[in-house]
Amino acid sequence: MATLEITGLNKSFAVGKERREVLRNIDLTLADNEFVSIVGTSGCGKSTLLSIAAGLEEFDSGSVRVDGVPITGPGLDRGVVFQSYTLLPWLTARQNVEFALKAAGLSRAQCREIADEHLELVKLTKFAEAYPNELSGGMKQRVAIARALSYRPKILLMDEPFGALDAMTRHQMQELLTRIWETHRLTVMFVTHDVEEAVYLSDRIVVMGLGPGRIKTTFDVKLGRPRHEDMAASAEFIELQRQVLRSIREEEQGVAAL
């Protein structure tokens, strides 16, 4: 059974006395352990789609199901990581991870054990007692990832998680995420504007179009795993990146012509 299934999804926002349609008839299925990136020109509804899957936004019609069960709001079956780090500044790295676990009803000892395990997973054991203002951007995002993974969600939803990082840190975070995913094998929906990042990380790339947001096309990424940085120089990688960019630019040119 598919882990995440979105069927006939439609979404609009109120704009004055009218409604603006932002997503139309979205059909998208993410299989168990599949890594799917969502790309597309600005305003195509990528982040809105992810927020709906997270249970953070309502929608007009259609269905969103996890293992066949309709979602009714946020849940522990889905972990969410945003571009902004969303850490509580008055809590240490460990306490930020424990905060999510306490909300799940775990004991104090369980919270400590699981938090430490996941800080080790993201290579932050030495910074467990550090506060967010003592951490770099990449470290903050690692804490956010540790927190999202700590309660063992079936699905990880990530909205431009590395968009605010410098190029070197971004690459390190891509390597970390790839290693975590290949080890723990969970389903990932990953929104990004970086096509190279999408090709490097994904099993499948979904290109969204505008007017209103819709799924234009999908690309299977047939690169082997485990992934490594040398792949970015391969002819297969470069050709797929070119095809995805062309698909996005067709949408941008279409909007410019309106």
Automatic annotation (TrEMBL):
SUPFAM superfamilies: P-loop containing nucleoside triphosphate hydrolases. InterPro entries: AAA+_ATPase, ABC_transporter-like_ATP-bd, ABC_transporter-like_CS, ABC_transporter_ATP-bind, P-loop_NTPase. Residues 4-235 form the ABC transporter domain. Gene3D superfamilies: P-loop containing nucleotide triphosphate hydrolases (3.40.50.300). SMART domains: AAA (SM00382). It holds the Pfam family ABC_tran. Keywords: ATP-binding, Nucleotide-binding, Transport. One of its GO terms (molecular function) is ATP hydrolysis activity. Belongs to the ABC transporter superfamily. This is ABC transporter ATP-binding protein. The lineage of its organism: Bacteria, Pseudomonadati, Pseudomonadota, Gammaproteobacteria, Pseudomonadales.
